[in-house]
Design goal:
mainly beta; Endonuclease - Pi-scei, Chain A, domain 1; 13 strands; globular
């Protein structure tokens, strides 16, 4: 699996506005090059990666590349209709923010954005300290397509999980 981050910077005294108010930014990660897409709503515009995650219909996380004109996404002003979503034909390195908030949501040019890498690390931490918890890790590609660990197994494989799983769908169950 290719690495997503090329460099990471721990920051102090940086904040960003989120749906929960201002939250601390813990780390800024520079990424590999991603294709640049433009996303416009009736009131906001954002240039971002094709796999940038926004919130559709107030509930569902979606990649920008999977959003279509007419969808409604979360913004600082509430749900807004998407009026344009298209690739711009070039790629650049991007920056991924790790925020100190459980929701991992923040505003990017007024559009609610989501960071999944930190959610994966939180779930790993949770499983490591809760023996009665099982985690199912399901990825859409690569060697991590289906894996399931108990709390004990997770403690033994924690480093491997961090290295192998970049942005999976993770479900927690007891």
């Amino acid at each position: 699996m290719d690495k997503k981050f090329t460099e990471s910077f721990t920051v102090e005294d940086w904040e960003i506005l989120s749906p929960n108010g201002y939250v601390d930014i813990k780390t800024v990660h520079e990424t590999i090059e991603f294709e640049v897409w433009e996303l416009r709503t009736t009131g906001h515009s954002l240039k971002c990666a094709d796999k940038h995650i926004v919130i559709k219909d107030g509930l569902v996380e979606r990649y920008v590349k999977d959003i279509v004109v007419g969808d409604f996404i979360d913004t600082i002003d509430g749900l807004e209709e998407v009026t344009l979503v298209e690739p711009l034909g070039y790629s650049v390195p991007m920056y991924d923010l790790e925020v100190n908030d459980f929701s991992q949501q923040y505003y990017s040019n007024g559009i609610v954005s989501h960071n999944t890498a930190c959610a994966a690390l939180y779930l790993l931490w949770y499983a490591m300290f809760n023996d009665d918890t099982n985690i199912l890790v399901a990825a859409h590609k690569g060697s991590g397509q289906q894996k399931s660990w108990t709390g004990y197994d997770t403690r033994m494989k924690s480093v491997q999980i961090i290295l192998d799983v970049v942005s999976p769908l993770m479900l927690v169950g007891k």
